Amino acid sequence: MQRRNDSLPYSDEKLTYWRTSGGYEVDCIVGAGRVAIEFKSCSEVKSRHSKGLKAFQEEFPQARLVIVSLDKYKRVMNDVEIFPATEFLSELWKGRIL
């Protein structure tokens, strides 16, 4: 059995979600707004899919913005990183997302 390595950076950060009274939301917030992640089941992310992340960025301008989707290729759109789901998981396990 593998044991959690508590000496990893950021290992004590909480996972939360974010929602405004106006209805904008982000699925997963890491720590105090360091990384914001949206999960989309679409095969091609459009700019409308990033509205919640862009609203979050107004409050947390230094946040890393990520959308995980069924896109075929990794790309960046308006400061939002778009990852195919399998590539996101690979990068996450390598420690390159958090």
Summed up, the helix count is 2
Q: Helix coverage percent of residues?
A: 10-25%
Tell me the fraction of residues in β-strands, as a range.
Answer: 25-35%
Largest sheet, in brief, is:
6 strands, mixed
Approximate shape: globular
Estimated radius of gyration:
14 Å
Mean pLDDT, to the nearest integer, reads 91
The total domain count is: 1
Describe the structure.
This protein has two helices and six strands; from the N terminus they run E-E-E-H-E-E-E-H. With 98 residues, the protein is α/β, with parallel strands linked by helices. The protein has one domain. Strands 1-2-3-4-6-5 form a six-stranded mixed beta sheet. The relative contact order is 0.16. The N terminus is likely disordered.
Give the helices and strands, then pairings.
Layout: E1 15-19, E2 25-30, E3 35-39, H1 51-59, E4 64-69, E5 75-77, E6 80-84, H2 85-93
Parallel strand pairs: 3-4, 4-6
Antiparallel strand pairs: 1-2, 2-3, 5-6
Please tag this protein with its features:
alpha/beta, 98 residues
Please sum up the structure shown:
Helices cover 18% and strands 31% of the residues.
